[in-house]
Structures are given as C-alpha cells and as structure tokens.
Specification:
3 helices, 44% helix
Length: 99
C-alpha cells in the first residue's frame, strides 16, 4: 500500500480576531461618511463631540483621534482581507509491502 504525505502550512489573520464593539463600528462608519462628504478631521471631531459619541480614553475627540480611528480600522480591514497562499513544507511517499 502506498501513501502520500504532505505537510501544509495555512496562515490566516482570521483564525484569531477580536470582535469590535457596536460603538467602534458606529464611530468608524460616521467618520467614513463624513470624509466622503468632504469634511476635515477637525470638523468631524467637533461633530463627534457634539453628538452622542464618547471617546474611550479622554474627555473629547481630537482631530488626531478621529484620524487614528479611521487609520486603524482601514489597517484592520486590509489585514483581514489579505489572503495567504498555503505553503507546502514537505512531500513524501510511504510504500508498504503488503503481506
């Protein structure tokens, strides 16, 4: 009997993904919508400070925080959409004589 042995390495960023909160998703969608409408980060931070949104670690949103939220989410989406090809690390054949 003959067997084919193949070692395949599969890597994917989707094996372990920390879920986003609904608040994070809403902030990102709000920022993207306002950017598409042509607003600048300082204008969006003012809008967010006047709305129901609250920042996680400070009292109010700054233009830098708004940019960071957008940048980090874009980076996350790009990483999650990246597809890696499987890597074959070894191939072998095992031949056993039947008795």
């Amino acid at each position: 009997m003959t067997h084919l042995l193949v070692d395949v390495e599969v890597t994917s960023p989707k094996f372990w993904v920390i879920p986003l909160s609904s608040s994070q998703i809403e902030k990102y969608n709000f920022i993207k919508e306002k950017r598409r409408e042509g607003f600048f980060y300082y204008q969006i931070s003012d809008m967010m400070n006047e709305s129901e949104f609250t920042p996680q670690r400070s009292d109010k949103f700054t233009p830098q925080q708004v940019w960071g939220i957008e940048f980090k989410m874009e980076k996350r989406l790009k990483r999650l959409n990246k597809i890696e090809n499987p890597k074959i690390s070894s191939i072998g054949i095992v031949v056993k004589k039947s008795q």
